[in-house]
Specification:
flat; mainly alpha; 14 helices; MetI-like fold; about 325 residues
Amino acid sequence: MSDIVAFNSVADEAAPQAQTDRVIAGPRGRKPRRALSGRNIMIYGTLVVVALYYLLPLYVMVITSLKGMPEIRLGNIFAPPVEITFEPWVKAWASACTGLNCDGLSRGFWNSVRITVPSTLVSIAIASVNGYALANWRFKGAELFFTILIVGAFIPYQVMIYPIVIVLREMGVYGTLTGLILVHTIFGMPILTLLFRNYFAGLPEELFKAARVDGAGFWTIYFKIMLPMSLPIFVVAMILQVTGIWNDFLFGVVFTRPEYYPMTVQLNNIVNSVQGVKEYNVNMAATILTGAVPLFVYFVSGRLFVRGIAAGAVKG
């Protein structure tokens, strides 16, 4: 017992000496990086320059849309407005001429909403079921079906315009919003099916097997297990579809009539109008209004977009 007490007393005396030796020797391990190292300055400097490069056109558009035409004629496009006016925005929305009609972008905006919402919902619903079936229910010919679907996604749209026109005409929906919604829904499904298939293939297979053992069927597993775990990929699909459909010009001008033109076609008619004075402030305001919806959707759900695209694009 005395030996143990003696050993403890020696250890207690040696501990302060060991701590003193460590302090004298200094800290060990890698040195912390300096916040203003040359590497960091180069990285952040490059990022700032690139960000300014892409933000400069937006800055010019915004300040030009807030100027009156007399101030714009002075020629300094980078100068902030001396007197801010929202008249160009009001005119771009409500009274700018888009051909024979002079009701601005308002009619095109509601046409775009009526096109985008059903096209996005229907294409995502069908593609999610397709991806779920291809990832978890190995039916005969699944790989061949998936290959044909993906090959179809890479066929140029321009090659298929004339056949689609004939098909829509025979169906009696050419020149209507229904026909354009059908086109956007079909063309959006291949890439969305790929995203959903890869995402569902990356989910734990044990969940699917356990549900099958418990007697769950196709739709029960889809609605009660897969959907609650798939919010990120649904956000990715929504952003891709909303951005692609809202910004589409080619399908809108080919498959619809003037009264059903989407917002992008209306914008083209405003910007390319050659009647009277070229109102650059109205053109800039109309351009910002047209791109506001996709930007809003992305900024609201941007974090989920990054998570979903990382999960759905590299797995499977």
